[in-house]
């Protein structure tokens, strides 16, 4: 059976540019829709977080204030309720062996900017995955988690790779704006990635070899489908 490691942020707050603290967590659609697509294809999905902490869902991702219609929010809640056992007792990233999995999947929400982007255990796994050609998928602000991976000389492991992420335009239109700790698209470009974004809020997926990235929550399903295609599971 194909096995995928879904790495979810354990952060529930984010330090903003003005020094204030902003409540955050994972984005419901990015976990729920991804998990549904993958498991419907017969894939076994294991969930891990830094330290094995129970992840927090961003309340805005289940609320019309976050641009999520109530009907969709009910669907995402139902899915997350079905994952309650896994979410309440995730694996600890430090205990994970990459060899046990066929791919790594990184959903977003702003939370990965607070922990996964600097997580040494995740950086180790991503470096191993890159060296082995193991599929790595990252979605929206989950692409910030890729920043944890550096080569021995301190350069970004994914420098030179073509990818997408939550765009600077989207951050200004419906994100944290200028109070974001950093604009992810800009940071990735600064670290040497070749960033290709689609129109704001479009379903946009970029595949570069073993690296698969999705731009935003609207790209959740298409990103998971690209992972299945890469693994030959469709």
TrEMBL record:
UniProt key word Repeat: no
InterPro entries (alphabetical): Class_I_gatase-like, DJ-1/PfpI, Prot/Nucl_acid_deglycase
Family annotation (SUPFAM superfamilies): Class I glutamine amidotransferase-like
Keyword Lyase carried by entry: yes
Pfam family, one: DJ-1_PfpI
Domain DJ-1/PfpI: from-to ranges: 30-229
Family annotation (Gene3D superfamilies): 3.40.50.880
GO cellular component: cytoplasm
GO MF annotation list: glyoxalase III activity; transferase activity
Keywords tagged on the record: Glutamine amidotransferase, Lyase, Stress response, Transferase
A GO biological process held by the record: methylglyoxal catabolic process to D-lactate via S-lactoyl-glutathione
Family: Belongs to the peptidase C56 family. HSP31-like subfamily.
Protein's name in the database: Type 1 glutamine amidotransferase domain-containing protein
């Amino acid at each position: 059976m194909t096995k995928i490691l879904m790495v979810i942020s354990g952060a529930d707050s984010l330090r903003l540019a003005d020094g204030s603290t902003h409540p955050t967590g994972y984005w419901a659609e990015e976990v729920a829709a991804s998990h549904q697509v993958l498991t419907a294809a017969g894939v076994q999905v294991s969930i891990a977080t830094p330290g094995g902490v129970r992840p927090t869902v961003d309340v805005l991702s289940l609320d019309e204030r976050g641009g999520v219609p109530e009907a969709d929010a009910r669907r995402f809640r139902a899915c997350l309720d079905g994952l309650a056992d896994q979410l309440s007792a995730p694996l600890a990233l430090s205990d994970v062996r990459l060899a046990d999995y066929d791919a790594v999947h990184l959903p977003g929400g702003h939370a990965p900017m607070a922990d996964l982007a600097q997580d040494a255990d995740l950086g180790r796994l991503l470096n191993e995955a890159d060296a082995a050609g193991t599929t790595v998928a990252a979605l929206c602000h989950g692409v910030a988690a890729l920043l944890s991976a550096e080569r021995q000389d301190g350069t970004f492991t994914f420098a030179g790779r073509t990818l997408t992420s939550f765009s600077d335009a989207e951050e200004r239109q419906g994100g944290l704006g200028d109070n974001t700790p950093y604009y992810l698209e800009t940071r990735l470009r600064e670290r040497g990635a070749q960033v290709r974004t689609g129109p704001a809020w479009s379903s946009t997926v970029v595949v570069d070899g073993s690296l698969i990235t999705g731009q935003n929550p609207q790209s959740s399903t298409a990103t998971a489908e690209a992972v299945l295609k890469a693994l030959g599971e469709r």
